[in-house]
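pasting for the record
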Amino acid sequence: MRRTALNSQFLSYLAKVGLLTLIYFAAGRLGLTVSSIEGIVTLVWPPTGIALAALLLFGYRLWPGVALGAFVVNSSAGAPLATVIGISIGNTLEAVAGAYLLRHVVGFHHSLERLQDVSSFISVTAISAMVSATIGTASLTLTGIIPWTAYSSTWWVWWLGDALGALVVAPVLLTWGTNSRIDRQPRTLLEATALLASLVVVSQIAFGGWFAPHMVDVRLSFVLLPFLVWAALRFGQRGAVTATLVGTGMAVWGTAHGFGPFVLETVHLSLIFLGSYMGAAAVTAMLLAAALAERQQVEKALRENQARLTGIVTSAMDAIITIGADQRIILFNKAAEQMFRCTAASVIGQPLDQFIPDRFRLLHGKYIHAFGQNGITNRAMGRLGAVSGLRADGEEFPVEASISQVEMAGQKLYTVILRDITERKQAEIVQDQLLHDLAEERAQLKQLTETLEELVEQRTEQVRTLASVLTLAEQQERNRISQVLHDDLQQLLYSLQIRLMTLNAQPSALEPPALKEYLDKISEILDRTIQVTRTLVIELNPPILQSNGLNEAFQWIISHMKEGYGLDVEVSAQAEYQVPDQDVRALLVRMAREILFNVVKHAGTNQAQVRLWQEGEMLLICIEDKGRGFDLQALEAGAEKSGTGFGLFSMDERLNLIGGRLEIKSAPKQGTRITIIIPVNN
């Protein structure tokens, strides 16, 4: 497959080389039939343009076709082999050098629609023609075909023939080879046909001998120029170079046959003048077509830019207003219509002042005048303060604006871009208020933090003092228990031990009546010992705490306070309350005992009331007396400074741990009411 593809490519290449050789030969023979020096040098050499166009369109690989074509055509003219080889080398180098310079040096475009391309093509054509003219003329002189004295004149004829062939033939092949599409609209085809027919007729009149076969007025040659201009204007570069080729071909044919304004003593001299004229005409037509193409490209770009600008202005979200030096409105886009609540048709040509509040109009006019004088092209407005706009319905609103200026046709135009910032201003007001509120909240938070820190410090000190008090209470309880054990229980046990030792030492010393009395005394001591032990155990862990019922526990407390301290306590309860958690139950019992102990010690009364009831999810235990009461604030202050009153504080802290709290109401001579509040489902 690959070998087949290579063979196919090679055959295609050979076909192109062969076709180029054939075309080169045919064009060369045609040129030699017109007029030549020694049958070799001619003023009309179309192969130069064919060779240059072929290498530009298909690449340098076709140079063998140029060389073979030159070799064959010059051999057919009867030139010696050495001369043929030299001329073939010159023709080949001419085409290769021209193609190289156009491709790699000047950045040539085949369409010839830029003035740069046309001027580069003309320059390169003139330079490359020098290569062929120099080598070809040298070959003729070195082989003795022409004398050295004719070198200069022969060189100029050779150069003119090659340059004219390149200028007339190559552009046609390049432009049609680049773009062969034909506009098939009937109107265009009809105009092209009319142009071609008119060009043929006029060429025949000027150079073919129609109507005036012997007229030699050079001015007649200028009748071709309007048709070349017509071709350039209506059909671009392709039309211009095609018309030039047709006109040149007919002019050369007519002049060679003795017709037209350039007929002189010899055909050779006639063609020199004709070649100069047609070369100038070809250059003029190409330059005109390129200039028109560039203008069309510029106009197209301007139209596209105008369309884009119109689209941008129309779809812009900001209002865009253009005014003249007299400050009358020239442009008013859709965003401006929405912003100022009016149509563009109603304001075009009207003064801009109608959209400026009265108090700013004089200042705005001075600002525009100063801006137009300072040469600055654009600037943001309102740098010294707020800018305000005025809607058609009289509503004033804040805007953000920028202004630019441009001078067109001697008149200054000012374009103002406006943005309605009403929502932004409102947002800024809200933001400022939020920042102000935030600052106040931060200040409050700071104050609360400081207060909390002080409270934490106070509570920390209270907890520290409480820990000290609890430690002291624990030590006091230990001392009390130790005292009970030492003063009561230990003394009873010592007394019992002494009596038992005495009885053991003298078992028969006592008579039965005395022995009975002695044993009764021992029994009494044992009873007292058991009573002391039972009392101590009950105080440490009352047996009633083993029961879930809170009512029973309070009944035990009442009897205990009555028996031990003479305090009459009245108990009332709405229902039987159960506290399954033994720790919580023990906490409530100890708190109630401690509060009742405080009544005994501080209230100055022997009566108290205990009430139990439930409110929602909370159980309330209220202990109240009608005693002397106390100043609660003074007690709290004393607790902070000296540690007194920490029993109540300790109760509150312990209740907080189980979700409860302690409420205290008291005043001097008005009694005290302390309420324990805990969750039912603690």
